[in-house]
Amino acid sequence: MARNRLYDADVLVVGLGRFGQAAATELQRLGHRVTAVDKDPALAESYVGHLSKVVQADASNPAAVERLRARDFALAVVGIGSSIEASLLASANLVDAGIPNIWAKAVTPEHARILTRIGVHHVVRPELESGIRVAHLMNGKLKDYIEFDDGFAIVKMAPPQETIGFTLGQSQIRSKYGVTVVGVKAPGTDFTYAVPETKINSQDTLIVSGPTELIERLASRP
Question: GO:BP terms for this protein (predicted)?
Answer without folding.
Answer: potassium ion transport
